[in-house]
Design brief:
Layout (H helix, E strand, L loop, with lengths): L8 E2 L7 E9 L3 E8 L5 E8 L12 H12 L9 E6 L3 E7 L6 H6 L6 H20 L2 E2 L8 E3 L9 E3 L6 E2 L18 H4 L7 H16 L9 H10 L6 H4 L4 H10 L10 H6 L8 H9 L4 H32 L20 H13 L9
Parallel strand pairs: 1-5
Antiparallel strand pairs: 2-3, 3-4, 4-6, 5-6, 7-10, 8-9
Enzyme class: transferase
EC number: 2.7.11.1
InterPro entries: Kinase-like_dom_sf (IPR011009), Prot_kinase_dom (IPR000719), Protein_kinase_ATP_BS (IPR017441), Ser/Thr_kinase_AS (IPR008271)
């Protein structure tokens, strides 16, 4: 098995081998740009990750975290998961050269459709489940499943292939080892994340439940006016199937969502359970017909989803504009301006660090890597 050692992190200038093109996205500690390999002429996505310069600093991503992401990506080879091509490193950045996924986000694609029935929707959910099944078979949890990380390889096909992206928060779950952390996007995190309880593969299944809820309605089940309210809604299991959005939704679809949005991780659907659920895999003609006849209200979907995208875009544009202003002024080096809520105090006690982790979840910056 390959490891993310120095032989993988090429100590060469990425621009000697790739032509760097336009920016595709920016995030907390990374910028993604289109690139073209000079030797082959093939296009890829170059993810420039800002390295943390000291152990006590909170600016940038630690070498350990980058190595973990690289190790996980190296081990993954599945049609529904983005692939890693090469890794380069310089003094300030690690550059992951990744498979280019140019088809845009799944939900943007669905918002442009004229009609959509549940049978069609399950074809996309099934691809997500297939990718997650591969991860979970290898005891890997993604921990950041959300619409922005579900991309299409080619949106011009009748049934585009889905690609799961952004493995910056992914972890291998070790049996017998308790893992706790407060990270992710509040809207999609499971109750065990909010409550700082041991985490496992089950957290991904909760996120799939939230994604499915949004796909069928455009509305978000737990999203509040503030991040604190969102987290409180998750912890309290405060959601419902509003008749305005779910009047044409099948009982099978609601059952699928309810069994994923289960607070008790032992009762929550596993990935295999989800793949075998009758909404995904009908066991009789009536179930198949119910799916086919249940139509998603795309007007509601577009209205609600566009509102959510607008809120996200404001946060991301604000961050990118902040970088641009600082670089133009020459006030500080770009790497010193990456984290808007950074403290100037670099040395922290363990308790202070834990308090900051909680605060970061309650008031997170834009997603770490928007691809």
């Amino acid at each position: 098995m390959k490891t993310a050692g120095m032989d993988v992190f090429k100590q060469q200038n990425v621009e000697d081998f790739y032509e760097i093109g336009e920016e595709l996205g920016c995030g907390q500690f990374a910028i993604v740009k289109r690139c073209r390999e000079k030797s082959s002429g093939l296009d890829y996505a170059a993810k420039f990750i800002k390295k943390r310069q000291s152990r006590t600093s909170r600016r940038g991503v630690s070498r350990e975290e980058i190595e973990r992401e690289v190790q996980i990506l190296q081990q993954l080879q599945h049609p529904n998961i983005v692939s890693l091509h090469e890794v380069y490193e310089n003094r300030t950045d690690v550059v992951l050269v990744l498979e280019l996924v140019p088809g845009g986000e799944l939900f943007d694609f669905l918002a442009e459709k004229e009609s959509l029935c549940e049978e069609e929707a399950t074809e996309f959910i099934k691809q997500i489940l297939d990718g997650v099944h591969y991860l979970h078979t290898h005891q890997i949890a993604h921990f950041d499943l959300k619409p922005e990380n579900i991309m299409l390889l080619d949106k011009n096909l009748p049934l585009p292939r889905i690609k799961l992206i952004d493995f910056g928060l992914a972890h291998r779950i070790q049996k017998g080892t308790e893992f706790r952390s407060m990270f992710g996007t509040p809207e999609f995190v499971a109750p065990e994340v909010v409550n700082f309880e041991p985490l496992g593969l089950e957290a991904d299944m909760w996120s799939i439940g939230v994604i499915t809820y949004i796909l069928l309605s455009g509305a978000s089940p737990f999203l509040g006016d503030t991040k604190l309210e969102t987290l409180a809604n998750i912890s309290a299991m405060s959601y419902e199937f509003d008749e305005e959005f779910f009047s044409h939704t099948s009982e099978l679809a609601k059952s699928f969502i309810q069994q994923l949005l289960e607070k008790n991780t032992r009762k929550r659907l596993t990935i295999q359970d989800a793949l075998n659920h009758p909404w995904i895999k009908p066991s009789n003609p009536k179930q198949a017909l119910d799916r086919r006849l249940s139509v998603i209200n795309l007007d509601n979907f577009r209205r609600q989803y566009i509102r959510r995208r607008w809120q996200l875009s404001l946060r991301v544009v604000g961050l990118c504009n902040h970088w641009a202003r600082m670089m133009k002024k020459g006030h500080r080096k770009p790497e010193d301006e990456l984290h808007g809520c950074e403290s100037d105090q670099e040395d922290k006690t363990e308790d202070e660090t834990h308090q900051e982790e909680e605060q970061d979840l309650l008031n997170p910056d834009p997603p770490p890597y928007l691809c």
